[in-house]
Design a protein that fits this description.
The protein is of the alpha/beta class. It has 27 helices and 30 strands. 41% of the residues are buried.
Length: 829
């Protein structure tokens, strides 16, 4: 817009006594003084221009209630802005601001203040004077702390702190009544992860306890010793605890897991407690060990240098995958002084958590002291060590540490908490969740049976589990056992009264399932026969799908079998590496192939309603995949050209490649077997379930015409990146939620076309503004949309539906992430 055109707009607005003026996206570099004539304005939108300053006359617009200056080149705002005392909403997201604009403090009617995406390093104490603030966005700055006066903002409900430099959240937040708190992309160490996972209320309670109590520090961590059987893991554990421990020529290999304690003094006079977990190395245990390979721990991999059986890549991969890259030391047990070279440089290049190699001879204690020093160094420098915890937390831990029992009841635990000063049940459960995550004790709060027990001695529980898996009768029966078997296995006094809880523990770990037609009879899938079950298969018109894994942790199919056991064909068509499912006239064959760390799962489906069953299979495998944060795998889709269609060995396409073709509006891809050009959307539709609603298909087609938008023609079909709406409708059968989802997707389409290249932060601002506008100016539409956020609908499917949409669009679409964030914040409030 030229200067002359802008003056004409201002002149006309003044003549018409306009109350609102939108000058966004006009390419403006300056605003003329004539803007001061628009004294009737209540709303001024100047976002997304190239303004470097504002005229002082801006201060004459005293009726303004909303000013949006987002995404300009302003390095400051004029002091006259402080004259706009009726202002309730101000966005000064410039990307250039280095100091907090002091005149903003004069705007005591502000309910929304956006200072995001600047270079602020501090916020002045005067922020506490803005008592009407409802939303404060400080994201995208360089903040490390907030002034304690932030606690004065008792009307604040939304606080945005993401993408800053906070290492801990200010405890004063615990005094606020915020229902939406964002803190992603900060190097946070406190509150602990387990607290953050529980949501805003748990965070506030934790921070409030920090203010109300003295601060204590917890010095405790897990040391996990892994490696092949007979490598010397148990010897290392004993040597750590007692340097003078004498080797035994007939030392038995660990069965399952042994847990022992070791203490060493810190420089600050405190005592550090190490819970040493010694893992049995036999392959039968590898699947079950993964349930105890936790984050925030130190790992040691022990290798017997006389043997060549240590699978370094397996152990390093599994630790990296399951422990969030916790540090790992390689201990070379040089028995009889036998040396072995290891390519450390290569291992360190592939595994960033691999720290160093240490050599020892346990018979002579050569190198043992260096190992002890390194263990003390690395374990005492884990991120959570020395966390500032409310004093009551540490006092409860001290009581439990001295309790010699294997387990206590939940009521006993709660009484201990109350005796040490706790008042709220929620706070007591948050504490048990924190200790559960650290591996201090086990408390499964989400299970109706297990939640009634606190397992203080983790070895008590793990030994009971492994006693079943190691039992000769159970193994001879290929994993089948009943309650009478359990009576014989768990016959010690410490187990007799807890058999139901222990069985539930096994089921909670997905180690067994109850046979549907035989109550009281169970199967442990990892002990099934390796021999494939005999069955017939109709190869005509199959649906095929494959997953290929860069590193395949053991146990994926075992967990899948447990999750889908209710539809196993005849309850018997299952073996160690495969299963056949039968549901509603369709059959699915799922087979796992493992090849030296790498692996694949092959799926083929026949019969009626094939896509429905394939959707179930993909959904269950998807849940398992999602439980591994760093799992790397590819999804492969079969070709449907004339040569490949109906073949059991067609050419396969990478799913991500097909979606990139769709994103780039490339409708065809070539088959390397027939050299035919194949329709990309047809390949996707062969796997996903079609929506037969004609009106919906028309809307989908319109969406697909926009190359800027990641919700494409198959938006109501199931695809790897566009799973959202079908899964959403599956969880949200209420028609009100379906209508709300339709409105949200329409809004996403509009925003993606209008703002194709915005950042995640900006997308959040736009979504918040759009929904506020709909609430204010389109109440009928808002009545439809808000149904997804309301009460029981939200709990019974609305939230899951919206999150599913966000999960499967968010990789390519910042607006979907923003909608999920808005939904969570709105519902909490």
């Amino acid at each position: 817009m030229t200067e002359e055109e802008l003056l004409q707009v201002i002149e006309k607005a003044a003549k018409d006594k306009r109350e609102s003026l939108d000058l966004s996206f006009k390419g403006l570099t300056s605003i003329p003084p004539e803007i001061g004539q628009l004294t009737n304005l209540t709303s001024l939108n100047l976002w997304n221009n190239q303004l470097t300053n504002l005229p002082p006359e801006i201060g004459q617009l005293t009726n303004l209630t909303s000013v949006n200056l987002w995404n300009n080149q302003l390095t400051n705002i004029p002091p006259e802005i402080g004259q706009l005392t009726n202002l309730t909403s101000l966005s000064v997201s410039f990307k250039e601001l280095t100091e907090f604009p002091s005149d903003v403090i004069k705007l005591n009617q502000l309910t929304e203040l956006d200072l995001s995406d600047n270079h602020l390093t501090s916020i002045p104490p005067e922020i506490g004077q803005l008592l009407n603030l409802y939303t404060l966005d400080l994201s995208g700055n360089k903040l490390t702390n907030l002034p304690k006066e932030i606690s004065n903002l008792y009307n604040l409900r939304n606080l945005e702190l993401r993408d800053n430099q906070f290492t801990k959240l200010p405890p004063e937040i615990g005094l606020l009544r915020v229902t939406k708190l964002t803190y992603g992309k900060n190097p946070l160490q406190s509150p602990p992860t387990s607290i953050r996972k529980k949501g805003v209320a748990a965070i506030r309670n934790y921070l409030k306890q920090q203010l109300e109590q003295e601060i204590e520090h917890l010095y405790e961590a897990k040391l996990l010793i892994v490696g092949e059987g007979g490598a010397g893991k148990t010897t290392l554990a004993q040597k750590i605890k007692d340097n003078n421990y004498q080797l035994k020529t007939d030392e038995e290999s660990t069965e399952g897991i042994d847990v022992i304690q070791w203490y060493f003094p810190l420089d600050n006079g405190k005592k550090f407690r190490v819970n040493i977990w010694d893992f049995g190395g036999q392959e039968i245990y590898h699947e079950t060990h993964q349930f105890f390979l936790t984050e925030r721990s130190l790992y040691t991999l022990v290798a017997d240098t006389r043997k060549e059986d240590t699978d370094f890549y397996y152990w390093l991969n599994v630790v990296e995958l399951l422990s969030n890259s916790s540090p790992i030391l390689l201990i070379k047990n040089e028995k009889q002084e036998r040396k072995r070279d290891i390519n450390e440089r290569q291992l360190r290049g592939e595994f960033t958590n691999f720290k160093e190699t240490l050599a020892t001879n346990f018979a002579t204690n050569r190198g043992l002291q260096e190992i002890l020093n390194k263990i003390q160094h690395y374990i005492s420098n884990l991120p959570h060590i020395g966390e500032e915890l409310p004093a009551y937390w540490v006092k409860v831990r001290e009581v439990l540490e001295k309790d010699p029992r294997d387990y206590i009841s939940l009521d006993e635990y709660l009484k201990i908490c109350k005796d040490k000063g706790f008042k709220e049940l929620e706070d007591m459960l948050v504490l048990s969740g924190y200790f559960h995550e650290l591996g201090v004790f086990l408390h499964f709060q989400d299970d109706d049976i297990l939640k009634k027990t606190i397992i203080l001695n983790t070895a008590w529980g793990t030994d009971a589990v492994y006693n079943v898996l190691d039992n000769e009768t159970v193994r001879e029966n290929l994993g089948k056992f009943d309650r009478n078997d359990l009576k014989n296995i768990w016959n010690e006094e410490k187990y007799i009264t807890m058999r139901s809880e222990l069985l539930k523990l096994m089921m909670n770990f997905k180690l067994c399932y109850e046979i549907p037609s035989q109550p009281g009879n169970y199967i442990a899938p990892q002990l099934l026969s390796a021999e494939q079950t005999e069955y017939n298969w109709d190869e005509d018109n199959n649906l095929l799908l494959r997953y290929e894994y860069e590193f395949m942790p053991k146990g994926i199919l075992t967990r899948f079998i447990v999750e889908t056991h209710a539809i196993i064909e005849n309850e018997t068509c299952v073996w160690k590496t495969g299963v056949v499912l039968n549901k509603d006239g369709a059959r699915a064959e799922i087979i796992e192939r493992y090849r030296y760390h790498k692996g694949e799962i092959r799926i083929r489906v026949s019969g009626n309603r094939k896509r429905d069953l394939l959707t179930t299979v993909r959904h269950e495998l998807g849940k398992i995949h999602d439980s591994y944060e760093r799992l790397k795998y590819e999804t492969l889709v079969p070709c449907n050209c004339s040569k490949c269609k109906g073949s059991q060995s067609p050419h396969f396409y990478l799913w991500d490649v097909l979606n990139k073709f769709i994103d780039d509006q490339r409708p065809e891809i070539q088959c390397i077997k027939s050299y035919d050009m194949v329709n990309v959307q047809g390949l996707v539709n062969d796997i996903v379930k079609r929506d037969l609603n004609p009106s919906r298909n028309k809307e989908e087609s319109e969406m697909s015409n926009s190359g800027k938008y990641s919700i494409k023609a198959d938006v109501v079909n199931i695809t790897e990146t566009n799973l959202g709406e079908v899964i959403g409708k599956k969880y949200a059968s209420d028609p009100s939620i379906k209508n709300a989802l339709d409105e949200i997707i329409n809004k996403l389409t509009e925003l993606n076309n209008k703002y194709p290249n915005v950042s995640e932060t900006t997308a959040t601002e736009i979504i918040n503004a759009e929904f506020r506008d709909i609430q204010k100016n389109q109440p009928e539409k808002w009545e439809i949309i808000k149904q997804i956020f309301n009460g029981k609908r939200w709990l019974n499917g609305g939230k899951t539906a919206l999150i599913k949409i966000g999960e499967h669009y968010s990789e390519n679409n910042v607006f979907c992430k923003a909608v999920v964030g808005f939904g969570e914040g709105f519902t909490d409030s």
